[in-house]
Amino acid sequence: MRAFSLEPSLLSQGDTADDSSGRKRLSTTLVGRISEFSAATWELYKTKPISYWVLLALSSGAMLVAFPASSLLSRLYFANGGKSKWIISWVAVAGWPLTVLFLVPMYFFHKIAPTPMTWKLAFSYVVLGFLSAADNLMYAWAYAYLPASTASLLASSSLVFSALFGYFIVKNKLNSSSINSIVIITAAMALIALDSDSDRFGYISKKQYTWGFIWDILGSALHGLIFALSELVFVKLLGKRSFHVVLEQQVMVSLSAFVFTTIGVIVNNDFKGMQAEARRFKNGESSYCMVLIWAGITFQLGVLGGTAVLYLASTVLAGVLNAVRVPLTSIAAVILFHDRMSGFKILSLLITFWGFGSYIFGHSFANKTST
């Protein structure tokens, strides 16, 4: 009996020794990888001037703060008594002169000339502007009927459509990680659809909620199409991706969208109804004006930040920031608007984040192998 009882003790001592040595190897490997990552990060930092990193940090901050703020302000407009989908979509593009303020000084300080305007280029800007106006209107309908947390999650499906339209229109490659992310994000959208009754506002009917869901998905699909067509314009017509050319495209597309949206507001007589809407708005007319003004400013700052990140870094970093802003918007909506976060919605949020991560990993790996 004593000999039999000694064997387990000896085995346990051996197992303990193996476990401790395994933990040491794991900790050593982890420390080594952290050291390698720190060294690589420091070497990357030294390759660029400080001004580059400051501008990249400001641009990234603009994406992470301005885009969620714009989405939340759109929801606040409807929550506090706003009714016009045309007005809130018009506000999104009414701030287009902000981009001009960044573009015009570049012509003087960098001594560069504006890109010559051709009929094909002008036509592409008009088409993209019309599609952007329609896209903003679809999202306005979505935010009128859906909680901000739900609307932002559904809007993340634009990555799926960007990948698909990029494959069919621009002939971008689809690797296994990209296909995996498409399936994952689609599954996340299906989870939200199955749990539609958990976060529907009491004053929103099931039909309105369903239409909000549909408009959000359609807006995301159109956003993906716009992204692919914009890339096609650069490939076929512009041929270069300097920062001022990117800003020029943004200005012209936003101006075109502003014209189309203004026509829609006039035809719908919504300008005439703004004064009455402001009087009915919660906290008064000043609150109404501030919500609309800041909704326009934050949207344009988000666009400028995204444009700068794409130019300064890569689409991978833009994808990372886009993935991060989805949970930021959802969490902010829960805190500020007390949106309900059911188990299905939390699971959908985690799956969406997983889908973004899969896409980013696949895209970055493809870039490394190509170089």
Helix content: over 70%
Task: Describe the global form.
Answer: globular
Number of strands: 0
In total, the number of domains comes to 1
Low-confidence stretches: 1-12
Q: Can you offer a commentary on this structure?
A:
With 371 residues, the chain is mainly alpha-helical. It has one domain (48-370). The chain has 14 helices and no strands. Helix 5 packs antiparallel against helix 9. It is a multi-pass membrane protein. Keywords: Membrane, Transmembrane, Transmembrane helix, Transport. Residues 1-23 are annotated as: Disordered.
Task: Give a short summary of the structure.
The chain is mainly alpha-helical and 371 residues long.
Question: How does the SSE layout of this entry go?
Answer:
Layout: H1 2-46, H2 50-79, H3 85-94, H4 97-109, H5 119-145, H6 148-155, H7 158-169, H8 176-194, H9 206-238, H10 243-267, H11 274-280, H12 284-312, H13 315-337, H14 343-370
Keywords:
371 residues, 83% helix, single chain, mainly alpha
